[in-house]
Amino acid sequence: MLAASLQLADEQGLAAVTMQAVADRLGVTPMALYRHVANKADLLDGVVESLLLEVPLPDPADDWATRLLALSRGTRRAASAHPEVFPLLLQRAAVTPGARRARDVVYGALREAGLGEDDVIQLERLLATAVLGFAASEAGGRFAAHSAAQLDADFARLQEMLAGAVVAALEATPHVP
Amino acid sequence: MLAASLQLADEQGLAAVTMQAVADRLGVTPMALYRHVANKADLLDGVVESLLLEVPLPDPADDWATRLLALSRGTRRAASAHPEVFPLLLQRAAVTPGARRARDVVYGALREAGLGEDDVIQLERLLATAVLGFAASEAGGRFAAHSAAQLDADFARLQEMLAGAVVAALEATPHVP
DNA sequence: ACCTGAACACCGTTCAAGT
DNA sequence: ACCTGAACACCGTTCAAGT
Question: What domains can be seen in chain B, in order of their start residue?
Answer without folding.
Answer: 2-48 (1.10.10.60), 58-172 (1.10.357.10)
